[in-house]
Write a structure and sequence with these properties.
This protein has a single domain (5-254), classed as Rossmann fold. 47% of the residues lie in helices and 14% in strands. The chain contains 10 helices and 7 strands. It has a 7-stranded parallel β-sheet, with helices on both faces. Helix 5 links the parallel strand 5 (129-134) and strand 6 (173-179). Helix 3 (63-71) runs parallel beside helix 4 and helix 4 runs parallel beside helix 5 (147-166). Belongs to the short-chain dehydrogenases/reductases (SDR) family.
Amino acid sequence: MADKFAIITGASTGIGFELASLAAQDGYDILVVANEPLIDAAADDFKQFGTEVRSVEADLSTLEGVDALLAATNGRQIDVLCANAGKGLGHGFLDQSVDDWRRVIDTNITGTLYLLHKVLPAMVARNDGKVLVTGSIAGYIPGSFQAVYNSSKSFIDYFTDAIRNELKEADGVTITTLKPGPVDTEFFASADMLDTSVGQSESKSDPAKVARDGWEAMKKGEASIFSGLKTKIQGVLANVTPASVLAEQHRSMAEPGSGKE
């Protein structure tokens, strides 16, 4: 058993898988979670790095799912939390079912906040711990045809800014927000966006690089990081570009059928 322990959510694929690999390589025992059976196969892969690996299949859009994850720690001190689980959703808002858009909100916002609310008090009490939360550049852009998702990431981006300030006196506890642009993961398939311009783009970021950017920033205690120069430029420009222009630009990327010639 290692002397340090990390939880990584959404770890079956994509950024979360890469974060879990980095944690294990850095000598952390890890507890990984996702809402699909593939998490067990992913856990077997992480064991190659020689630390203790446990996996749990849980739906983090529910309070019960978060409770099941925390119960799986068996009371062990959490030194690092990578709150990476997220859910995408494409198409126009009026074309989405209530169940679908609620799941995005419950996964990206409610489940994430509940997990932080449960984990942070112990870190603050001992004045030690690191948290990495996966936000997005999408949180800076009015997301036409991705409105609920982008708005949920806007919530996360600014929520982490707020609680970082609230907890500034606990200087041994750091909260880092990872803000990637489009990443080459299963996100676009699960969000039903494969026929969009952004879904078909070949310029999406490598999840391994995005994860490393976030992991290194977290280790340094940085407040946030835009993964990649292009994403950083987008973040800067978003602050000076009218919302109507940003929404129209996003429409050209995310509108169903926009990827077809």
